Amino acid sequence: xxxxxxxxxxxxxxxxxxxxxxxxxxxxxxxxxxxxxxxxxxxxxxxxxxxxxxxxxxxxxxxxxx
Length: 66
Ligand SMILES: [Zn+2]
Description:
Layout: E1 3-9, E2 16-22, E3 27-33, E4 40-47, E5 54-58
Antiparallel strand pairs: 1-2, 3-4, 4-5
The chain binds zinc ion.
Pfam families: Zn_ribbon_21
Protein name: CPXCG motif-containing cysteine-rich protein
């Protein structure tokens, strides 16, 4: 098992959220709720197998909540 902890920032309110990531999965979709602004966060996580670095890309949230 190869778990790492990674802090991400909510794209809406910049609140820092700690995630535990399974590096055995090279690519996974993550869904979470921000504990601060309670908006759904959807992002794609990609692990680079060469550098073991983890990259996140946020899908732009345009659900017209306002
Ligand atoms: Zn937030």
